[in-house]
Amino acid sequence: MRSVARLIFFWLSMMLIAGCTFFQDKDEEILPAELVKYDEKIKIEQIWKTKIGKGSESLHLSLVPNGDLGRVFAASYDGKVIAKKSVNGQRLWDVNLNITLTSGPAFGEERIVVVGKNGELICLRSDDGSEVWRVNINSESVALPLIKNDAVMVATIDGQLRSYSIFDGVERWTVDQDMPALTLRGSSAPISVGNNVVAGFDNGRLLSIDIATGIVDWETMLSPPTGKSDLERLTDIDGAIKSLGQDIYAAGYQSQIASIAAESGQILWAKELSSNAGIALDDEYIYAVTDTGDVIGMLLRDGSEVWRKNILLRREVSAPTKFKSTVVVGDLEGYLHFFDHKTGELLSRKRVGKGAISGSPIVIDNYLFVQNESSEMAVFTMIEKKETPLSQAELSATGET
Length: 401
Hints:
Layout: H1 2-30, E1 43-51, E2 62-63, E3 66-67, E4 71-75, E5 80-85, E6 91-96, E7 101-108, E8 111-116, E9 120-125, E10 131-136, E11 146-148, E12 151-156, E13 160-165, E14 171-176, E15 191-193, E16 196-200, E17 205-210, E18 216-221, E19 242-244, E20 247-251, E21 255-261, E22 267-273, E23 278-281, E24 285-289, E25 295-299, E26 305-309, E27 321-323, E28 326-330, E29 335-340, E30 346-351, E31 362-364, E32 367-371, E33 376-383, H2 392-398
Parallel strand pairs: 2-7
Antiparallel strand pairs: 1-33, 3-4, 4-5, 5-6, 7-8, 8-9, 9-10, 11-12, 12-13, 13-14, 15-16, 16-17, 17-18, 19-20, 20-21, 21-22, 23-24, 24-25, 25-26, 27-28, 28-29, 29-30, 31-32, 32-33
């Protein structure tokens, strides 16, 4: 009898251990990947840092820096908008709009535009922050507005793209798209291509619209939805869209990454890829972040994969940014990761603060600007290595004189 009892106790113990291991493995599957060790190959230096206002508690909003060679503008969740000198952070002006902000600032035509949580669209003068106009768009937007050709264009979460006059905020046109029953929270920021605005929508469609008239020139389905459930049929285009020359590049969730002809909307090439963060590119490569956190480098001409790094799995990686010879992404713990743009090797890592980096870093001249969800903005530069001239003896050894 005792032997039977011991046997039962043994099997119960084994089951308990197996159960603990099972749940431990499951926990590990959903935890963010631990930061890997690496050899520092480049020198990234923080130039200056500032606190804008109160943080947004990881709401993944489109509050990102913007500016030019002389000035950088930034906004906080609690309604503060600031302007500083790009090179040293010297204060130029700051205002408090006394509302909750979800997107901005957009910058252009010597104007600053931000969007409020309750649908406020506010235009400020870039030289002093004074308010030019304020209208209500009667919807929520978490996408960065676009300023182009005396127009302000805003994508809203209800599937609309709206255009307003930069001069007085009068609405000029609206383009609607039918929305699926289930979507991811977010919207892709519209971009300008010539005299058109190109925008992605939660139904997986990409549209090119004449900025002056609001007439749709073409629309393309990036990838038709598949599957039986609403969850399986998600094909949102929520990430960064880019253009180069006569081509547009975009990626969607549970969809594809594709090159699209700007004039016709024809898909030139497409590769299966799921991304809700978006892409970056240069003259040779296109860089993407998958919804699981893989960072990928592909050839621009045909989408062939050159390298892939999976060291940031489940770290809620931001859209990539090309910065000099690196590709930079942010993560949920406030780290910036710098990868070699040709090989994907991790070259450096810097931390802005504890707040998540949900918006992609931006490049102004030789500086990298990044804002986290704790409303901290930091500015970095890459210290280039100076080549030491060869001595006369070394020149002689190489056969040069």
